[in-house]
Amino acid sequence: MGKVYCKKHESYRCGCEGIPLAEIAANNMYGILNKEVEPLEGNINKPSYYNWIPGIECKEVTRHFNYNKGCAIKYIWRAGRKANEIEDLKKAINYLQDEIKRVEEDK
Q1: Phi–psi pair at 6, nearest 5 degrees
Q2: CA-to-CA distance for 34 and 101, rounded, in angstroms?
Q3: Among the four 1, 5, 12, 49, which has the fewest Cβ within 10 Å?
Q4: Do 31 and 78 belong to one domain?
């Protein structure tokens, strides 16, 4: 059947029956593909917890990695600067564990 997206949990990995990704793309169910997006400004676009190293934005680094690695870097980058440091570090570990699982399955 392929990957499915669970609208209830907003996840591709929750295990629920969801909507096949091909159907989402074919029907543009969320109106995302043709939607005009206004540029983000201020703290929404450049929050301080992602810009604390002078001259380097977190997203400038993470865009060179796949999703799991990029998310892990993002949570490590902001750990102790946004909310709960331990929670951010656990989130980073979660993404790294998922990446390890993906790499092992691809062997």
Answers
A1: -95, 110
A2: 34
A3: 1
A4: no
